[in-house]
Each structure stands twice: as structure tokens, then as C-alpha cells.
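Researcher: Next sequence.
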Amino acid sequence: MEHVGLALDERADGADTDDLGTLGHPLSKHTPFYIGFFGGLGALLAFFLGSALLSVSSYLVLIVVAMFLAAGLNPAVEFFMRRDMRRSYAVVVVIAFVLVAVTLFVLAIVPVITDQVAAITLNAPGWLDQLQSNKQIQHFDEKYDLISRAKDYVANGDFASGVFGGVLGVGLAVLSALANTFIIVVLTLYFLSSRTTTKEAIYRLAPASRRDRVTKLGDQVLRSVGGYVSGAFIVAMCAGITSLIFLFIVGLGEYAVALAFVVALLDVIPMIGATIGAVVVTAIGFATDPSIGIACVIFYVVYQQLENYVIYPRVMSRAVDIPGSVTVIAALIGAGLLGVVGALLAIPTAAAILMLTREIFIRRQDAR
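Model: Next structure:
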């Protein structure tokens, strides 16, 4: 009976094999269908990830800004740590000091700036009247009606409404700025407090045989970024304070605080920031009195040479080591990608990339 059962099973298997055919070879991975199908899936996945990154790009910018601010504040944290203070306490002290300083600065400076901007707006039509005495300006005014349009725009006083799209737009812009500031402060606090553990976690991703070198290179990059952020703040403060003193001396004390604040704020922007601030102050100087305008030209030409060849090299000597041409290219690329924020972050980023290229790629090429 067992032999009969085996025979029946073999007959059944043979029948199934004859009816369904033999098993074929697996589908080749080099066929157009296979390549096209999985290539299409890869393209769709890449498009989805790219769209997701674009949708959160504004938050990524805030994260990057917070990381750079944390790197810039870290030297102050380490200063307190060298005085036998725990890192968590040092972070709280530094953040509290920064918040108090910014709050006091805003409370002290905003009313003054508001009054002085109002005075500039009030006097601007008179400055435009003075421009009409120039024959070339008269020619352009007769042809294009520039002076009257500028007067109407300045006298109207609806700058904020025109820029932001009404009172609701101004309110939303203020709320958005406050929300972004809060996010940056929280992220900066987190990055400062967890800096050591975050670094160690990232460095452990490197192979054990190369971890020591990766750690040293990473620490050098962080020191460079922190030094640049701190140095840029010091250079901008020098520009603002010297401009404030000069404007009081030269006779523009009515607008000194507002204009000095503008100069310090613009001086942070690489390449063109200092020049734009000088042009703004000089234009108001010429509109007030030609002799004051000439004094502004002389002062800012001399000061920018002093800043470029004395202040900036001394402040940045331990922070970044980057050629001037690379600075210009990096600032242009950063401004094209992320605007003013990109221009601010471009130089330390370029310095870090250049240092890694020298230490890794160039040394490897020289060893061959």
C-alpha cells in the first residue's frame, strides 16, 4: 500500500509539473523594467524628501542660526567653567546675561531710535528740496517727477503698511519675529547645555581608528565658528561706537543713536554691510550740510581702512584663516542661498570647509 501511495504522489507531482511548467529563472536586475521601476521609486522618494526639506527650510535656518550663536557664546561659558562653575550653571548665567543685556538695550534704544527716525522722516522733504538746487537733479525731476514722488512717499508715513501689507500684516510680522526669537533662544540654550554630550555622540559615529583625529578636527571647526561669531560682534560694536562718537562731534547728534545702530547692524554683513551703512550716514550728512557730508566721507574712508587692516585682522586672527577671494565667493553664494543669514554664516562655513580640505585632502595628496 505504501508503494501504491508513493506512486500516486509521484504521478500527481508529475501532472502538476506538466500542467504548470518548470520554474523559470529569476527576473534579471539589468532588465529595463527592473531598472525603470526601482529608478522611478528612487526619483519619487528623492522628490518627496526634497519637498519635505523645502517645507521645513525656515525651521532649518533657525536651527543653523541657533547652532552658530551657541558656538559664539561657548567661549563665555568656558570662561565661567574655568572659574570652577558647572557647565549647566555657566550656560544659565550666560543666557541670562545676554537676555538682560538685549532687553535693556531694546528698552533704552528703541524709543530713541523711534524719535530719531521720526525726525529723519520729518526732515526728509526739506532735504529733497535742497536737492532741487542741483541742475542734474532738476533735469531728472522735470523728466521723471522724482522729487515730488519721493516727498509724497515720505510724507505719507505709511512705510510699515506698505511693506507689510497693513496693520494685520505688521502684527503678524511682529508675532512671527517674536516666535522665531523664542525658538532661537530655546535652541541656543539646548545646544549650549548639551554641547559636550552632542559632540561625543557625533564623534562616536567615526571609526575608532580615526576618532581621535575627527575629534580634534571637529573641535577646531567649532572654535573657529565660535571665534568668528564673537569677533563679528566685537567688530560691529567698534563700528557702532566710533560712528556714535563721530556723529555727535560732527553735528548729527539728533540722529546719532539711530544711525550708529544702523551702522553696527549693517557692519555684521560681510563685504557690503559697512559700505551700505557709510553710504546711509553720508547721504544724510550731505542732505543736512555739505561740509558734514564731506566729513562723513573722510571719516568712513579712514575708518574702513582701519577696520579692514587693523581691527578685523586682530580680532579674527585666532578665528578664521581664509583668503579674501574665498571670503567674497562664500558671501556671494551664502547670500544667494539664504539671503542675509546665508551671507553671515558663509564665512565661518567656508573657513571650516577650507580647513578640512587642507587637513584631509591636501595632506593625503601630498603624501602620495
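Model: Residues 57-205 form one domain. Residues 1-12, 159-167 have pLDDT under 50 and may be disordered.
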